[in-house]
Write a structure and sequence with these properties.
The protein is α+β, with helices and mostly antiparallel strands and 183 residues long. The chain is built from 4 helices and 9 strands. A 5-stranded antiparallel sheet has the order 2-6-5-4-7. The longest helix is centred in the N-terminal third of the chain and has 13 residues. The model has no long low-confidence stretch (mean pLDDT 93).
C-alpha cells in the first residue's frame, strides 16, 4: 500500500525564483514552511494505493498524459485555505488551467483501483502551513505582487509520499515515474 500523488513539478529555476522572493520574508510569520525542493502542483492524491494497482496506474497516466498538449504557465499571486482570515495553508497560485491534467490524473487513479481525495481541485503550490487558523491577509496581498517566470508544462509525475521521513519529520517525496505530455 502506497501514499501517492500525481503532480506537475516546476523546473528548478522557477522554484529558485519563488524561493528567493520568499527567503527574506520567512522569518516574519508563524508558519511551517514547505521545502522548496518539494514544491509541486498536486493533480490527484490517493492516501492508499494498493501495490497491485501500480502498473495499471502508470499505464493510464502514460496514455492520458500522451493525449494532452504541453502548455506554458507561471506561478503568480497566491491565497489561503480555507480563507485568508482563518487560514491553515498559504499557497502560491498559477496562471493557466490545470483542469484537463487533473481529470487525467484523477481518472487514472480511480480506474486503477484507488480512492482519489475528494477535495475540489484548485491548482496551487503549498508554501506553508499553520498549526491553528490565523489571519494571513497581508501575506496573500504580498503574494498577489508575485509573478514568476513562465515555464512549459511538459510532463506529469507520479510521486510517493513517505510520511515522517523527511527533514524535521516532514514527508519525503520520491518521484517514481514521469509521463511526457503529447507523446
Amino acid at each position: 500500500m502506497s501514499r501517492l500523488f500525481v503532480a506537475v513539478v516546476p523546473p528548478e529555476e522557477v522554484v529558485e525564483h519563488l524561493d528567493d522572493f520568499l527567503s527574506v520574508r520567512r522569518g516574519a510569520g508563524e508558519f511551517r514552511w514547505t521545502l522548496a525542493d518539494q514544491w509541486h502542483v498536486t493533480l490527484a492524491f490517493a492516501a492508499h494505493v494498493p501495490d497491485r494497482a501500480f502498473d495499471e496506474l502508470c499505464e493510464r497516466l502514460e496514455a492520458g498524459a500522451g493525449r494532452q498538449a504541453t502548455y506554458t504557465t507561471k506561478i503568480v499571486g497566491g491565497g489561503a485555505f480555507p480563507h485568508p482570515d482563518g487560514a491553515k495553508v498559504l499557497y502560491a497560485g498559477l496562471d493557466g488551467s490545470f483542469d484537463a491534467l487533473a481529470r487525467v490524473a484523477r481518472n487514472a487513479v480511480s480506474t486503477a483501483g484507488a480512492a482519489v481525495d475528494g477535495h475540489t481541485f484548485h491548482p496551487h503550490v503549498t508554501l506553508a502551513r499553520l498549526g491553528r487558523p490565523a489571519n494571513v491577509t497581508n501575506w496573500v496581498r504580498l503574494l498577489d505582487a508575485y509573478s514568476g517566470p513562465a515555464w512549459d508544462v511538459e510532463e506529469i509525475a507520479l510521486v510517493e509520499s513517505h510520511l515522517g521521513e523527511g527533514p524535521r519529520r516532514r514527508p519525503r517525496h520520491e518521484v517514481l515515474a514521469t509521463f511526457p505530455l503529447g507523446a
